[in-house]
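step 4 of 6: structure.
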Amino acid sequence: MSGQDELQELVGAAIGEIEAAEDIRALDEVRVKYLGKKGLVSAQMKELGKLDPEQRRERGRVLNEARQQLEKAIASRRAALEKRALEEKLAKERVDVTLPARPERAGVVHPVSHVWEEVVEIFADLGFSVAEGPHIETDWYNFEALNIPPEHPARQEHDTFYFHEKEDGARKLLRTHTSPVQIHTMETQQPPIRIIAPGRVFRCDSDPTHTPVFHQVEALVIDRDTHMGHLKWTLEEFCKAFFETENVKMRFRASHFPFTEPSMEVDINCSWEGGQVKVGEGDDWLEILGSGMVHPNVLRAGGIDPDEWQGYAFGIGIDRLAMLKYGIPDLRAFFDADIRWLKHYGFSALQIPTLAGGLSA
Ligand code: PHE
């Protein structure tokens, strides 16, 4: 057999193996086998030295051609394999974006979030804007500026979560109410002021109507002649709008808060029969808010002259509102993240509360 025939056979075998390679790795093995440093074609190249010049030139040309032929075959097989791998990947990862969402995966809006939105919607309509403050507070904002000095007995009622003491004796704390936002707002805005501040608050307490974390919405209105009549009217309008009825029974009770004078608390009439809360029935009452006329010391702490300005403030329990409106008996379940509970009491993400379209509809 001539060298020529042998070479052709070798190239034929190589092409067959290249075509049969099913992935890039197999293809690479074929390449090494024939074209690698110790490959079969390379071995023939090494033989060239033994030939005389005339033969060597001719043999070299033929070998080079064979080599190029194999390189081309490998390159085109590689391209085909890569294309196939990409197609397989795309087919496997294909997403049909036109498919509807799986109903069992659809999330729901927590009743607290929903009620929060309802409350914001109502007060926005009354001309209030939304303010914010930090969860981690200093003693000054949570107590002192609100007319609660260090030894004041009201501090004990707050069951405060404290952080470790700093070297200078100062201790940060988790805010026990949204009232510190009153002070932050007075520091950053000039009166007239009309804000609400919904947010999370923290107290070391737990029973069916108390949890260590809960939500309040603070309101602060300051103007030259704001009085108790404005406060009472606003609360009545709020309750009617929120409970979506004219006949909510509210009870205004004289009370005491260091940061308001005079102060009153508001209870809503409800019944707890059969493990359900119902508004406007029975003869039980659930306290939903504390309120009053802002104490002059608080205005002063916020840098506002009490001889020129006066106003009212209140703090409503958002979770309490949710319990009453949606008949949810145990507050602790709000924070259990139990999917079955959420499905039962949650709201569709498309149910955005608006006054025009209905709050809870
Ligand atoms: N901060 C009070 C509380 O948490 C509520 C309140 C706010 C009372 C504003 C009066 C005025 O109980």
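step 5 of 6: annotate
 - The chain has a mean pLDDT of 91.
 - The domain at 111-345 is CATH 3.30.930.10 (BirA Bifunctional Protein; domain 2).
step 6 of 6: archive
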